[in-house]
């Protein structure tokens, strides 16, 4: 997930750098000076101070779109994937608010939409992450990172329940499946089986287009291992796990995914 997040961050930063120069816009010198202070702080990786300068520039000139893009990018830079602290959740809220303001002005902004999906995914708000990933796909139907994320979300939705089931059945994390309780396995399959298949289908779409896409290979391995725990027999479990292990090996030897996931 962190690789996908870094790719999206690079896309958002590129958008900030490509936005209409402030010098070409009708704003006061005070606004330009405040904005330029923010840019210098941003380039020095002082993102909190940069965000404060961009916010001041926006307060003085609410229509200064480039400042809004830089503000959003500053908050996204401050957000730490995997950090569940209250302070980081507050940064996430600030980033989401700033990205939302960018999207109000530019609803088809792909990097900002990507970033919304990624932050919600990192926060494990899976319903909102799913909504924003589908918005990414509406803007760019072939986006490989988004299609891979659909699969990753399906795996995340299932994996916590699978872990709980294994604990209930006194299974260790490394114990082979499938889940030995027929009733519990059937219940999980009814709830998550179709979602896992949809996730596998989404990742298969990526791999059909690019068989070397490392993130998709890793996602496929995870999805197949999840599917294996719901297998109806030991032989079916073993067959699925052979395929999962093959994808895991391929993912380990593949080149990193390219920025943007397109």
Overall pLDDT metric: 88
Tell me the major beta sheet: none
What is the molecular shape?
Answer: elongated
Supply the number of structural domains: 2
Total helix count?
A: 11
- CATH architectural group of the largest domain: Alpha Horseshoe
Summarize the structure.
The chain has 262 residues and is an all-alpha fold. It has helices at residues 2-18, 29-43, 47-60, 65-78, 86-105, 110-122, 126-139, 144-168, 182-209, 214-229, 234-253. It folds into 2 domains: 2-125, Tetratricopeptide repeat domain (Serine Threonine Protein Phosphatase 5, Tetratricopeptide repeat, Alpha Horseshoe); 144-253.
What do you see in this structure?
- Helices cover 75% and strands 0% of the residues.
- The chain is mostly helical and 262 residues long.
- It has 2 domains: 2-125, Tetratricopeptide repeat domain (Serine Threonine Protein Phosphatase 5, Tetratricopeptide repeat), CATH 1.25.40; 144-253.
- Helix 1 (2-18) runs antiparallel to helix 6 and helix 2 (29-43) packs antiparallel against helix 3.
- It starts with a helix and ends in a 9-residue tail after the last helix.
- Mean pLDDT is 88; it is low at 1-6 and 255-262.
């Amino acid at each position: 997930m962190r690789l996908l997040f870094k790719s999206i961050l690079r896309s958002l930063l590129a958008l900030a750098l490509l936005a209409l120069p402030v010098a070409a816009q009708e704003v006061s010198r005070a606004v330009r000076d405040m904005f330029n202070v923010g840019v210098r702080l941003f380039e020095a990786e002082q993102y909190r101070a940069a965000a404060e300068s961009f916010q001041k520039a926006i307060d003085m000139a609410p229509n200064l779109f480039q400042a809004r893009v830089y503000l959003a990018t500053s908050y996204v830079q401050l957000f730490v994937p995997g950090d569940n602290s209250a302070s980081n959740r507050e940064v996430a809220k600030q980033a989401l608010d700033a990205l939302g303001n960018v999207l109000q002005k530019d609803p088809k902004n792909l990097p900002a939409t990507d970033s919304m999906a990624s932050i919600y995914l990192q926060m494990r708000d899976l319903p909102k992450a799913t909504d924003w990933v589908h918005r990414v796909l509406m803007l760019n139907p072939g986006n490989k990172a988004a299609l891979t994320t659909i699969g990753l979300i399906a795996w995340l939705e299932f994996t916590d329940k699978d872990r709980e089931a294994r604990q209930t059945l006194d299974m260790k994390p490394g114990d082979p499946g499938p889940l030995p309780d027929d009733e519990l396995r059937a219940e999980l399959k009814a709830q998550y089986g179709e979602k896992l298949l949809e996730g596998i289908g989404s990742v298969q779409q990526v791999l059909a287009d690019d068989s070397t896409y490392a993130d998709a290979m890793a996602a496929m391995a995870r999805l197949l291992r999840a599917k294996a725990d719901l297998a109806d027999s030991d032989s079916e479990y073993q067959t699925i796990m052979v395929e999962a292990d093959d994808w895991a090996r391929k993912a380990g030897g593949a080149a990193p995914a390219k920025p943007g996931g397109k």
